[in-house]
Design brief:
This protein is α+β, with helices and mostly antiparallel strands. 21% of the residues lie in helices and 28% in strands. The strands form four sheets. Strands 7, 8, 9, 10, 13, 14, 15, 16 and 17 form a nine-stranded mixed β-sheet that branches. A four-stranded antiparallel β-sheet has the order 3-2-5-6, with no helix packed on it. It has a two-stranded antiparallel ribbon with strand order 1-4. It is elongated and about 70 Å long. 25% of the residues are buried.
Length: 241
């Protein structure tokens, strides 16, 4: 994630932010080989090469953390109005990470965190079509016509959605509530909720069960774990990186 240069330099041990601002103004800092003298300039150490007096700032260790997000937490790095943020659930780590995409407050499930900006951008860019699987509970079973609309794409206020893979997982005989599985390859804001609302079946419960090859199998709600090397490699292959 791109941050102001003086903040990156201060975190790397080059003095206070004010002292780092002086380094920038004196023309002693470069980003990707070009000298930078504007204090508003930003860089991302996971993808940019930053140097002071020609000496490279080492890139932070790349981290990949999987969380089983519980409902009731907002997916944001900073929100002064949020009482509960997913950042509060992260363990102590050797470097800062940020969420890849987001889940709305009442949606639970798979949430990935990393400081690998290049991979995060590819995973969330629509051109790579990374599949995201959701389990949605609605009040009644959708008709075949409603399911077909979801499979063809639904017109929302921000345009037509891409087709979704949808199947009925089951129905509770006592309550009549129906559980659906939807697989999307785009990630608009609150997309699953809006699609089901548009076909007359508002969501009562929603969880993301998979993000690409990742799942929260055996990971309790609110818990986190580091990705294995094999899992990271699968993500990289998925986006051609």
């Amino acid at each position: 994630m791109a941050e102001r240069l003086q903040k990156l330099l201060a975190a790397a041990g080059y003095g206070s932010r004010r002292a780092c601002e002086v380094l920038i103004l004196e023309g002693r800092v470069s980003v990707n080989g070009a000298v930078v003298t504007e204090l508003g300039s930003k860089a991302d150490l996971s993808s940019d090469v930053v140097a002071v007096d020609g000496k490279l700032i080492p890139r932070p260790r790349l981290l990949y953390v999987l969380m089983n997000k519980p409902a009731g937490y907002v997916t944001t790095v900073r929100d002064p109005h949020a009482s509960r943020s997913v950042m509060q659930l992260l363990p102590e780590l050797p470097a800062r990470v940020f969420p890849v995409g987001r889940l709305d407050k009442e949606t639970s499930g798979v949430l990935l965190f990393t400081n690998d900006g290049a991979l995060a951008n590819r995973l969330t860019h629509p051109s790579h079509g990374v599949p995201k699987t959701y389990r949605a509970v609605v009040k009644t079973t959708p008709s075949d016509a409603a399911l077909e609309k979801l499979r063809k794409g639904v017109r929302l206020e921000d345009g037509m959605t891409a087709p979704a893979d949808v199947r009925v997982l089951g129905q509770d005989r006592k309550s009549g509530r129906c559980t659906l599985e939807l697989v999307l390859k785009e990630g608009r804001n609150r997309q699953v909720r809006r699609m089901l609302e548009a076909v007359g079946h508002p969501v009562e419960e929603l969880a993301r069960t998979r993000f690409g090859p990742l799942s929260t199998h055996r990971l309790p709600k609110g818990a986190c774990r580091m990705l294995s090397k094999a899992e990271v490699e699968r993500l990289l292959r998925l986006v051609g990186q």
